[in-house]
Specification:
Shape: elongated
Distance between the termini: 100 Å
Strand order of the largest sheet: 8-9-7-11-13-14-15
C-alpha cells in the first residue's frame, strides 16, 4: 500500500528529477536528485529521527537502517532506512518523531551575465585566436593546392607527352590509309594503356588532395573549438579589483568605512554554509581558514567547476580580497566554508543543521552566513529542533544571517533576514530585517570568471560583510564589551531611506546619510557621564581621591542619543549592574561590590541619573579602583536583550595615615566634632 509519506517522497523526487532534466545538461559533482535516485533504487528513505532523552543508535540498526550523523545539540540523528520499516521505527518507545529529511535550496535567480570588461577581453582574444586558426587553415590549403599541382605536373606531364606522340602517329597512319596495319593497332593499344594510366594518376592525386582538404577542415574545426576554449580559460588579472556600486554610495558604502574608520573586517571570521568553493582563487585565498564537507564527507569543500558557482559567488562578494577581480564588503575578514549543498544548489536540512552545529563549535566563528532556506512542510518537532540549533549559536554570541523568501530559517527569531535592493533603489524589494545590494552585483565563479549576478543570496552575504565591519571596529563605540544583539540592533536602527538599506558610513566628503559605523562612533544608543561627589581631591591626572572609610559616590547620567542621530527609539527595560574592582588586577573589591539598578525607560533625547555608592573599607589596600557598569536593555527593531559594558570611571585611594605607611597625596584633615 502506498503511504502518504511515499507519495510525498515521490513528488519530491520527480520534482528534482524534472528540474535536472529541464536544465538540459549533466550536472558535474554531487546533486541531490542523483543521490535521491540512488536511495530509491535501493528502496531507502533518508529521515531525521528525534528521541525522547538521549539518542539510541541501536534502534536504527534494529530496523535495518544506517546512521549518517548524530547531532550534537539536539536529541536527534539522520539515517537511511528501508521505507517499509519507518512505521515500526515510529512506534519505538523513545522515538518522538521520524520525518523525511527536508531539502534546502540556495537562491540565485539571475539575470547572470559576464563582466563586460572581461567579456570584451575574451571576445577580442577569441577573435584573434579564430583568425589565427583561419589563417593557418588558409596557409595549409594553399600548400595543399601547390602540392597537388606539383604532383599533377610531375606525374601527368610525361604521360601527356606520350599521349600526344601516340595521337600524332595514329593521325599520320590514318592519312596513309593504314588503320588495319599491325603497327597502327600496336600504337593504338599503347595509347589506350597510357590514357588509363593518366586517369588513374589524376584520380589518385585528386583523392589525396581532397583527403588533405578534408583533414584541414577537421583541423580547422578543432582549432576553432580550441580557440574558443582558450579564450574562456584566459586568466585576466589586474593590479586590484575596482570598487563597484555595491560598495559605494548606491550600495552599502563600505568604501567610506574602510577609509573613515580604517577597518576592512580584520579579526572577524565569517562561516559560510553553501556549495563547494574554489578557495585557491587570488581573491579568495588570502582569507581562507579551512572548512569541511557535509555532503560527501570528504573534509574538503573545494571545487573548480564553473557550473558549481554559488558558494564562490557568495564568498567573493562578501569577503573577497580584491587582489584580482572582485572586492567584498569586508575584504580583510577571514572565512571558513561548510559545504551543505550540491552543485545543483540543493541539500538536506540535516546537513544544514550539522553545519550550524559545526560552525558554533569553531572558536573563531563570529558570523554564520546561510544563503539558503527551506520552504514547505516540516514536522513541528524538526522545525523546533532546527530553531534550537540556531538559537544555540546565537546564545554563544554568533550572528546568523539568511535570505528572505524562505520560511526556514528566516522565520526564527535568532536569525537576521536579508532583503534585496538594486543600485541606489531601496524600494524595489523591501522585505527582511535589512536590505542590501542584490541585483547585478560583481561576483566570481570557481574558474575565476567575473560575472554580475542577482539574488537574495548575494544580499545576505553583503549583510554578513557589513556585520564583519561592525565587529572589527567595535571599540569605536566607547563600550568595553558588547553582545551580538547590539550589532544586530545598531545595524537595523541605522538603516537609511524608507526601504531600509544597510549603509556603512557617511562618505569622506561629508555627503550622504550617517551609516552604522557613524552611529557606533557616537556611542549609539546612549552616552554616559560620570560625576563624583564628596571626594577629597584630585590627582594630577584628574582622578578623584577617596580615602579608606569614605563613601565613593558617583552620579551616572545615561542619555538616550537616538534622537540626535535621527533614529529615535526608546531604551526599554534598562538594567544596570555596578561593580568595583582593582584597576591593575581586575579583582573585585571586598564587600558588596555588585549593585543592581533598574528597570528604566528612557525616551529619545531624555536622560536618567543613577547614583552609585560604594563604601571603602578602612582595611582596604590603597590603589587605583575602577567601576565596571554592565547594561542590559532592549530597543526597537531587535527582540533580543542588548548587553554592553563600560569601564571608564577611576578612583584613587591613597595610603592612609596608618603606622608604617606613606602619606600618599595627603591625609584627610580631622573631622569636626
Amino acid at each position: 500500500m502506498i503511504t502518504q509519506r511515499k507519495i510525498i517522497s515521490l513528488l519530491v523526487f520527480f520534482l528534482f528529477l524534472s528540474t535536472s532534466l529541464a536544465q538540459g545538461a549533466e550536472e558535474d559533482g554531487w546533486t541531490l536528485s542523483a543521490y535521491q535516485e540512488r536511495l530509491w533504487e535501493e528502496g531507502l528513505e533518508r529521515v531525521i529521527v528525534s528521541f525522547r532523552g538521549s539518542v539510541n543508535k541501536s534502534l536504527i540498526s534494529k530496523h535495518g537502517g544506517e546512521v549518517i550523523r548524530v547531532f550534537k545539540t539536539i536529541p536527534a540523528l539522520v539515517c537511511t532506512i528501508p521505507e517499509e520499516n519507518i512505521e515500526a521505527l515510529e512506534k519505538e518507545r523513545f522515538v518522538t518523531d521520524v520525518s523525511l529529511d527536508g531539502v534546502c535550496e540556495a537562491n540565485s535567480f539571475g539575470p547572470r551575465y559576464r563582466d563586460p570588461y572581461e567579456e570584451g577581453i575574451i571576445s577580442r582574444r577569441k577573435e584573434a585566436l579564430l583568425r589565427s586558426a583561419k589563417d593557418a587553415y588558409n596557409d595549409s590549403i594553399k600548400e595543399a593546392r601547390e602540392a597537388y599541382l606539383k604532383v599533377l605536373d610531375e606525374t601527368l606531364s610525361p604521360i601527356r607527352e606520350r599521349l600526344t606522340r601516340y595521337i600524332r602517329m595514329l593521325s599520320y597512319l590514318r592519312r596513309r590509309g593504314l588503320e588495319g596495319h599491325r603497327v597502327y593497332t600496336s600504337i593504338q593499344s599503347s595509347y589506350r594503356e597510357s590514357l588509363s594510366q593518366y586517369y588513374a594518376a589524376y584520380r589518385e592525386a585528386r583523392r589525396a588532395y581532397e583527403d588533405t582538404l578534408k583533414d584541414e577542415r577537421i583541423r580547422l574545426t578543432a582549432a576553432e573549438d580550441d580557440a574558443r576554449e582558450q579564450a574562456e580559460e584566459i586568466e585576466i588579472y589586474s593590479d586590484g579589483a575596482k570598487v563597484e556600486w555595491n560598495n559605494r554610495e548606491k550600495g552599502v558604502n563600505s568604501i567610506a568605512a574602510w577609509n573613515r574608520y580604517n577597518t576592512m573586517g580584520e579579526g572577524v571570521t565569517v562561516i559560510y554554509l553553501d556549495t563547494a568553493i574554489n578557495y585557491k582563487l587570488p581573491d579568495l585565498a588570502p582569507g581562507y581558514k579551512g572548512g569541511t564537507d557535509f555532503v560527501e564527507e570528504d573534509g574538503d569543500p573545494f571545487t573548480d567547476n564553473p557550473d558549481d558557482y554559488h558558494g564562490t559567488e557568495m564568498v567573493s562578494c562578501g569577503v573577497g580580497s580584491g587582489a584580482s577581480k572582485v572586492i567584498g564588503v569586508a575584504p580583510r575578514a577571514s572565512y571558513k566554508l561548510g559545504r551543505v549543498l550540491g552543485s545543483d544548489c540543493k541539500g538536506y536540512v540535516s546537513d544544514f543543521i550539522a553545519g550550524v552545529e559545526w560552525a558554533q563549535g569553531e572558536d573563531d566563528c563570529d558570523i554564520i552566513n546561510m544563503s539558503l532556506g527551506y520552504e514547505g512542510y516540516i514536522t513541528p518537532i524538526v522545525r523546533d529542533e532546527y530553531e534550537a540549533v540556531c538559537d544555540s549559536a546565537f546564545n554563544k554570541g554568533i550572528l546568523l544571517v539568511t535570505i528572505f523568501g524562505r520560511d526556514i530559517p528566516a522565520g526564527y527569531d535568532s536569525v537576521i533576514v536579508a532583503g534585496m535592493h538594486r543600485e541606489g533603489d531601496s524600494g524595489w524589494a523591501t522585505e527582511g530585517d535589512a536590505r542590501a545590494p542584490g541585483l547585478h552585483v560583481p561576483v566570481l565563479d570557481p574558474a575565476n570568471n567575473a560575472w554580475y549576478d542577482t539574488g537574495y543570496s548575494i544580499s545576505s552575504s553583503h549583510v554578513s560583510g557589513m556585520l564583519a565591519l561592525l565587529l572589527s571596529k567595535a571599540e569605536i563605540t566607547g563600550f568595553t564589551k558588547l553582545n551580538n544583539a547590539y550589532f544586530w540592533a545598531v545595524m537595523t536602527n541605522s538603516l537609511i531611506e524608507e526601504g531600509g538599506r544597510i549603509y556603512a558610513a557617511r562618505s569622506l566628503d561629508g555627503t550622504g546619510p550617517l551609516g552604522t559605523l557613524d552611529f557606533m562612533a557616537q556611542n549609539w544608543p546612549f552616552n554616559t557621564n560620570f560625576q563624583y561627589r564628596d571626594y577629597a581631591g584630585m590627582t594630577p591626572e584628574a582622578i578623584p581621591i577617596y580615602y579608606a572609610g569614605d563613601n565613593m559616590i558617583q552620579d551616572i547620567t545615561i542619555e538616550n542619543n537616538t534622537g540626535f542621530l535621527d533614529s529615535p527609539a526608546p531604551i526599554m527595560n534598562l538594567f544596570m549592574n555596578a561593580k568595583q574592582y582593582f584597576h591593575d588586577t581586575t579583582q573585585p573589591l571586598p564587600g558588596t561590590y555588585t549593585k543592581p539598578y533598574g528597570y528604566y525607560y528612557i525616551d529619545p533625547d531624555n536622560q536618567e541619573v543613577i547614583s552609585n555608592t560604594y563604601y571603602i573599607s578602612p582595611t582596604m589596600d590603597p590603589g587605583l579602583f575602577q567601576t565596571d557598569l554592565d547594561f542590559n536593555f532592549r530597543i526597537q527593531k531587535c527582540t533580543h536583550n542588548i548587553k554592553a559594558e563600560i569601564r571608564q570611571a577611576s578612583v584613587w585611594c591613597p595610603p592612609g595615615p596608618r603606622p608604617g605607611t606613606n602619606t600618599g597625596y595627603g591625609v584627610r584633615p580631622p573631622r569636626r566634632r
